[in-house]
Predict the 3D structure of the following.
Amino acid sequence: MEYKFFSILLALILITGACGHVTPRKTGDNSAGIPKKDSVKAGAVDRVGNTAIKDKVSINFTQHKTLLDLILLLPDDAFSSWEWKPEDRLKWYNEIKANNFYSDATSRFSKQKYFEPDRAGFMIVDGFWSINLYHATDGSTIVITDDHVGDGHTLNFYEVRSNKLKAYMDGESKLSGFRETLKKTDPVEPCSEKFEALEDPIFEYDFSKNDKIEIESSWYLVQESYGNCLNGNAIQYRFNPQTKKFDIEKIYWKPKQSE
């Protein structure tokens, strides 16, 4: 009886010791399913050790320096429908100069659509803004900005030479007064009402080719209705680097939906 008692006591001691023993877990082992804290992924650290900036927009500073410099020179009225203050442009410029990129956070009210050595375009809050450069033989540059909001375009014309900017008050003179150019000088019918319509329609501007501009009228100026009074509804210009004006290449009827 006494032997049986001691056997039971010994078995209880061994079981208690086994339950109290815990094998230590190696550092870094997550086999127990405990969630790890977020870590910086490989390659997400820049060369100075900071966490990488999200939504980087790459611009090679050297290749685009001329255009970047000119954006700094522009007066406030070049941004008539939005506000891109000189200090904000300078911050944006310096970020590109230092890194060959900028972050979207630097340009809060715009989103870059394209950026080339002689032209750039940005989606803005209510529309689209672009800048376009045309280089003259005397070393100067003609700059045209287009602030397109809703149905309207605000064009600004500047000439830049030796880092000095001059604004043209009558910029359309560079485009040969295109509204008058569209009118026939010897129409075969009374056209006064149709000529008045030229003051109202929406004109679209295409700056997609470096040395050309195309202007086309809104949808309702179609040849069937206006062909006796107008020479066309679209004009294509080519920049003349000697005169610093835009010469007419052709006037034509561009197909439109009448109504």
User: Anything to note?
Assistant: The longest strand covers residues 152-161.
